Amino acid sequence: MSRSIELHASAVRATLALGYDAAAASVEVPLARAQGGVLARDLSAPIPLPPFTNSQMDGFAVRTADLRLGGPAEAAITLPVSGMQAAGSAPSVLAPATAAAVMTGAALPRGADAVIPVEQVTPPSFDTDRIAISAAVAIGSVPGTFVRAEGSDVARGAVALPAGTVLGPAALGACAALGMGDTTTVTVRRGPSVLVITGGDEVLAPGEPLKPGAIHDANGPLLSSWLRDAGACSVTTLSVTDDPDEFSRRLRECVESSGVHLIVTSGGISAGAFEVVRVSLEREAQMWFGHVAMQPGGPQGCGQYRGVPVICLPGNPVSTWVSCEVFLRPALAHVWGCCAPPLWSSAVLAEPVRGLPGRTQLRRGVLETGAEGAAGNPAVRCVGGASSHLLMSAARANVLLRIPAGDHELPVGTRVHILPVHGGTIAQEAASE
C-alpha cells in the first residue's frame, strides 16, 4: 500500500532528526560570508534606527503649536524661514513662530515636531524668506507629520532580526544600517554534512563521451547544487556501479572517513533487477522502502546506516528534484533550520489539467506574467508533460503544481496549490523591458 505524501514527509523529518548534531548546527561567520545563511539567534540592535529623528520629505520643519494661532478659519498662516537643515548636518534649533527648510533625511531641528512638504506651501520654493501655509494644511499638520522618529524602525537593544531570518539582501542591508561591517560576525545555522550517492553502470560523468546505452549523471550535480542552496555545510559525492559488494565497500569507507550527518541516494530503489541501493541497504541497514502516492517520485526510502540517516530518492532527475522540494526541504528546515521552509500558496489553472487515479501529481509550471484568473488570483500553466525524465521542461519551471488524485479533468480557473521553486524561465515581456 502506498504512503501518503504527508506520512512520508513526517518519516523523512524523523529520519533526519536521528542525525542532528546540536554542536555542529551553528557557526560564527563574518557578515561578508553570511549571505543566504539563517540566523541561529536573535540579533539585537546596537543603535536605534533611524539613529536620529529626521524629515521624511523635502519641506519646512515647524512647531505645530505655531499653526494654531487663531484668526479666521480660512486664513493662511505666515511664518518666516529661519534657516536650512541639510542632510548630514547636526540639528539646529528652531526658533518659535518660524519655519526651517529641511531636506529628506536631514535631522529634524530641535523644537520642530512636523514637516510640511515644499509643494504644500506658498511659494513652493526654498528660495524664500517667508512661507504661507493654508488653513487646510495647517489643520492637517499634527505632531509627527512627515517625521521619522528616532528608533521607529527598531529601538536600541531591541530584537532587530529574529532567529530564523534568512540573510538575504534586505536583511544584509538592515545589518549595514545598524553599523555592522563585513568583518562583524553573526551566528548562522549550519546545515548537515551530506554524502550524495548516484550512479549505475549506465551513468557517466558529465563531459565524458557517451557510449551506446549510457547517460550523463545529472543527479549528482543536481543534488549537490540543491543541497548547498538548502544550507548543507558540505557535500561529498560518490558515484557507484551496480555491483552491490562494491557499493557496500565504498559506502562503508566513505562514512567511516567523512563523519557525515546525512546520506542521500538517487536511483537504485525501484523494482528492477539491478537496484543496487535497495539490495545493499536492505541487508546492511535499517530501512523502509516503498511507494508514495505521488507522480513523479513514487519510489522512496529512508532509514539508518551505521547511525547515519539515509534518504533514498528515485533516480529520474525530475523525480529526484521534486522529492527534494517536497520532502528534503521541509525536513532540513524543521530539523536543522538551515533553510526557509517551503511556502505553498495558490493559483488558478490557465489550462485544463487531468489528474491521475490514486496519485497526487506534482506538475511543473510557470506563473504567467501579468495574467490573472478569477478574483485576481495568479494564473499558472504547466510546462512540459508529466513524465519524470523531462528535465529540460523542469528547468523552465518556477512553481510546482499540486494536482489532486482523481481520474478527472480540472477545468481552467480551478484553484490549485503551488510551490515556488528556484530558477525557471524569465517571462519574455519581463526580459525585454
Automatic annotation (TrEMBL):
SMART domains with a match to the protein in the record: MoCF_biosynth
Enzyme class: transferase
Listed cofactors: Mg(2+)
Pathway(s) per entry: Cofactor biosynthesis; molybdopterin biosynthesis
Listed CDD domains: MoeA (cd00887)
Residue ranges constituting the MoaB/Mog domain according to the UniProt record: 195-334
UniProt KW Magnesium keyword: yes
The EC number(s) this enzyme carries: 2.10.1.1
Keywords: Magnesium, Metal-binding, Molybdenum, Molybdenum cofactor biosynthesis, Transferase
Catalytic activity from the UniProt record: adenylyl-molybdopterin + molybdate = Mo-molybdopterin + AMP + H(+)
Pfam families cross-referenced by the UniProt entry: MoCF_biosynth (PF00994), MoeA_C (PF03454), MoeA_N (PF03453)
General function of this protein: Catalyzes the insertion of molybdate into adenylated molybdopterin with the concomitant release of AMP.
Family: Belongs to the MoeA family.
Descriptive protein name: Molybdopterin molybdenumtransferase
Organism whose genome encodes this protein: Kocuria gwangalliensis
Lineage of producing organism: Bacteria, Bacillati, Actinomycetota, Actinomycetes, Micrococcales
